[in-house]
């Protein structure tokens, strides 16, 4: 079989700690936070710019009842005199509770980017709990989350499907 290169190589690289954010999904009855990683819309734009150049991709937003569709179209240069390939993907999202229009557009664009493979690796992350009575991610947990991401990305993570972060694990 012929060896091929991935024309979406920069899009599908593992998400780095500075390209993602974590949000609280819920607080358990025992007081732990369940947090989930997500890519930012800035990450989407930066990765597409790095992969295709700012002129080599575009997005198109359409408003639908209750939300938005995003269509991203990219131009993959042809090899050895072959014409370029035009590729489009589309996905949608609802309006969000906070900043409904901006948030909905951003979510639609991020969901569409996942269709190209960007951020798809986040779906394989372990379930992350933070042992805290706080309703928000405490400052001490951010460093631990960053270490977790780095270990996942470099292949040294040897934990299970569930990770619990505690203040007592904080390195000083």
TrEMBL record:
<comment type="similarity">
    <text>Belongs to the RAD52 family.</text>
</comment>
<dbReference type="GO" id="GO:0006281">
    <property type="term" value="P:DNA repair"/>
</dbReference>
<protein>
    <submittedName>
        <fullName>DNA repair protein Rad52</fullName>
    </submittedName>
</protein>
<dbReference type="InterPro" id="IPR041247">
    <property type="entry name" value="Rad52_fam"/>
</dbReference>
<dbReference type="Pfam" id="PF04098">
    <property type="entry name" value="Rad52_Rad22"/>
</dbReference>
<keyword id="KW-0227">DNA damage</keyword>
<keyword id="KW-0234">DNA repair</keyword>
């Amino acid at each position: 079989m012929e060896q091929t290169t991935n024309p979406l190589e920069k899009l599908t690289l593992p998400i780095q700690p500075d390209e993602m954010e974590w949000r609280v999904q819920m607080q358990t009855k025992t007081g732990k936070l369940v947090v989930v990683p997500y890519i930012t819309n800035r990450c989407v734009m930066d990765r597409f710019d790095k992969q295709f150049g700012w002129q080599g991709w575009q997005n198109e937003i359409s408003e639908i009842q209750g939300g938005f569709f995003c269509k991203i179209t990219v131009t993959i240069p042809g090899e050895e005199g072959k014409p370029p390939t035009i590729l489009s993907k589309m996905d949608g999202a609802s309006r969000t509770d906070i900043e409904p229009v901006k948030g909905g557009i951003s979510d639609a664009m991020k969901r569409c980017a996942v269709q190209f493979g960007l951020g798809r690796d986040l779906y394989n992350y372990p379930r992350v709990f933070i042992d805290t009575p706080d309703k928000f991610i405490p400052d001490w947990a951010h460093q631990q989350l960053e270490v977790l991401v780095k270990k996942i990305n470099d292949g040294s993570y040897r934990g299970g499907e569930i990770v619990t972060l505690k203040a007592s694990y904080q390195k000083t």
